[in-house]
Amino acid sequence: DSGFRQEPPRLGNQYDEDPVLQNILKRLLPDTIMQEIEPDLKQLGNRAVTDIYAMGEDVEDPNNYPRLKQYDAWCRRVDEITVAQGWKDLNDVAAQEGLVSIAYERPYQEYSRIYQFAKSYLYSPSSALYSCPLSMTDGAARVIEMYGTEEMKQTFYPRLISRDPKTFYTSGQWMTERPGGSDVSRSETQAELVDAKTNTWKISGFKWFSSATTADMTMLLARTIDPATGLVQQGSRGLSLYIAKMRKPDGQLNGVRVHRLKDKYGTKGLPTAELELDGMEAQMVGEPGRGVATIASILNITRIYAAIGVVCSLRRCLAIAKDFALKRQAGNRTLDQIPLHITTLARLELVFRAGAQISFYAVQLLGRTESLPENDPQRKEDMEVLRLLTPVAKAFVCRIGVDAISETMEALGGQGYMEEIGIGKNLRNSQVNTIWEGTTNVLALDVLRVLQKSKGAALETFAQVMNKKIATALSTSPTLLADAAKRIQSSMNATCAFVANTQDPVAVETSM
Ligand code: MFK
Ligand code: FAD
């Protein structure tokens, strides 16, 4: 028929079309670094809507979802997982683009993290969640850098930060078990010493969620059987961290049986599995009984990935909604001329901008804490602020970001709900960020942990740093910011006073 055809929304270069990212980078990076990295960001901004986009679409095609073959024709257990070609290509692109390595090559010292996360932000919304294995790979590299033995630094570390797809390793992170994911102290998996000289252990148990199941290696928690007594300590102080390869040198799985692939609401291309461990050969990382504290270095990185992951998905969905508003007509006006519609988009834009600022602030602090000398007083302050900011950013940004993505769908009316538009995938893939790496309430309790451990000092430091930032901002645009600044300051001061004046943790908890 010859009836009306709506001109579809379009996505251009994802770096060029993102003034918010550009302005954050201009603010956080010295000019010389900005000039050096901008061509790289532009090329990735282009790839995000061309070849990387096509790889993500290939992964999201239901015909290509991961499949598990447990037995071969001869009833031999094989546990082969087939993934989309796009998934493999996304791995290679990630290595070549340096999505993990930039953080460890540190070409720009403390600024390297900002560069790396800017690239992750551009790659992620087109990557069908390949950013998930990358985030855990990044965290694993950091744990080895901080706690690994010389051997681990020579064998695993160079692969985790490799730019060559042939040598690049990705890592899983196995914490969650059937009795509890938030509360890992109930974990059942046990590790038995095989050879003290080579630090070899055999691990048996059941891991309830493993997302990077096709990864090359994993970091996992297990309850250590005391080699002297044969006993295990209950609670989380009985847990140690281990590192293991997924396969033995002969190519067989390393004491792992894939019980089942999970049937999930989103993250459809990600091969999340239930795993039975039966004598998985592994090495202990860090001190026995310090598993949770050691793996926290991964958590504190993957939590920033989760916040950035939701922010960049929200931006992608808003870009679709904004372009649609320029083209879609209601009455005799396009939507961008209708105040009611624009007010909605502006509110969502504000959520996106706030989320981007908070998340990149965490990235900036992460870079500084990793690069500044240990005795630098700035580093001590940054570490305190980062420890408090990370759970806040992850919980808050993911929570409000997912709600905002849902609303961008509405901004396209019925077309927003259509699979081809891409908002549905972003919504499904973002929703999980409110759950994995700690639910919103569990992260609220983590904030409480920081306040209790520092006896409120962490919040004092945070308030001082914020007050300095507010003063700087006020000196540049006094009238615009005065009212907001006053409200932030008074609420911060009230919270600090409350925490300082109460010794009762329950009272603090109920006030949050
Ligand atoms: C784009 C997407 C990117 C993201 C992809 C991710 C893919 C999905 C992967 C996963 O979901 S992996 C599983 C993630 N699981 C969680 O996040 C668990 C959530 N639960 C918690 O965070 C609990 O609070 C916790 C497991 C940490 C409670 O454990 P414990 O042992 O009962 O807590 P405890 O006793 O308070 O803390 C033990 C030690 O760890 C303490 O240190 P000390 O012994 O020195 O005092 C704590 O201070 C320390 N600790 C805990 N959390 C920390 C931390 N240290 C630094 N940072 C933290 N976040
Ligand atoms: P529970 O801990 O049982 O939580 C249930 C509810 O109770 C939540 O609302 C929670 O907020 C609340 N709750 C729990 N404790 C408290 C408390 N003390 N106070 C107040 N409320 C509380 N894990 C891995 O280790 N590796 C992976 O690769 C991995 N991949 C995943 C992939 C997907 C797609 C999903 C959905 C999960 C994945 N997880 C993985 C697991 C994830 O980290 C856990 O699901 C999450 O940590 C929550 O644990 P749980 O499922 O046991 O829920």
In helices, the fraction of residues equals 40-55%
Strand content is 5-15%
Second-tier CATH architecture of the domain at 171-290: Beta Barrel
> What compounds are bound to the protein?
decanoyl-CoA, flavin-adenine dinucleotide
Task: Kindly describe this structure.
Helix 7 (131-147) runs antiparallel to helix 10 and helix 10 crosses helix 12. The chain has helices at 19-28, 31-47, 51-60, 85-97, 101-105, 112-123, 131-147, 150-155, 157-160, 291-327, 339-371, 377-410, 423-431, 440-453, 457-476, 478-501, 505-511; strands at residues 67-71, 77-82, 171-174, 190-195, 200-210, 217-224, 239-245, 256-261, 273-285, 329-330, 333-334. It has 17 helices and eleven strands. Among the domains are: 171-290, Butyryl-CoA Dehydrogenase, subunit A, domain 2 (Beta Barrel), CATH 2.40.110; 454-511. 53% of the residues lie in helices and 14% in strands. The strands form three sheets. Strands 4-5-9-7-6 form a five-stranded mixed barrel. The protein has 512 residues and is α+β, with helices and mostly antiparallel strands. The structure holds decanoyl-CoA and flavin-adenine dinucleotide. The site of decanoyl-CoA has 28 residues, from helix 7, helix 10 and helix 14.
Which structural traits does this protein have?
512 residues; two-stranded antiparallel ribbon; five-stranded mixed beta barrel; 11 strands; alpha+beta; 53% helix; 17 helices; Butyryl-CoA Dehydrogenase, subunit A, domain 2; binds flavin-adenine dinucleotide
